[in-house]
Amino acid sequence: MPIIKQEIYIDAPREICFQLARDIETHTRTTASSKEKAVGGKTSGLLEKGDTVTWEATHLGIRQQLTAKITEMEEPHRFIDEMVTGAFHSFTHIHTFISSGRGTIMKDRFAYKSPLGLFGILADKVIVKKYMQRFLASRADELKRIAEEEHRG
User: What residue spans define the domains of the chain?
Assistant: First the structure.
């Protein structure tokens, strides 16, 4: 099972970063490259424990939908979303927020399993893992930009 880990320092309080990371409109702004939008379940506002959201997006040239559920919420420290249906066999995405000086270290841990057995394993090695690393890093960079802008006022 591939695991992608990353962290980024954001010069904004943990509470701001936590709220932005679970805000559906901010999620849409941070995933503009894939034209991601909420089309089912909760489609606006802040995600809470138990909420599901269906995202529609274009990844690797394929328009697709993915439904995720917020399975854990420890405000403002951590939340977890897990795939209910979608292109992966499964995934668990842990979002962690740690106060650091006047800012926040935001950590992502994205563990997934591709479908299609051996073909999926090959796709992971050749395409999927690198694509997901870039996608998650780009989203984190954009969330950092928005949080720091909001914090500076």
Answer: 3-152
Q: Give yes or no for a contact between 13 and 100, defined as CB atoms under 8 angstroms apart.
A: no
pLDDT value of position 152: 84
Position 116 confidence tier, pLDDT thresholds 50, 70, 90: confident
For residues 48 and 75, what is the distance between their CA atoms, to the nearest angstrom?
10
Contact between 67 and 86 under an 8 Å Cβ cutoff? The reply is yes
- With a CB cutoff of 8 Å and minimum separation 6, the contacts of 144 are 8, 9, 10, 106
Determine if the pTM surpasses 0.85. yes
Residue 102's contacts (CB-CB under 8 Å, 6 or more residues apart) are: 11, 13
CATH 3.30.530.20 fits 3-152, yes or no: yes
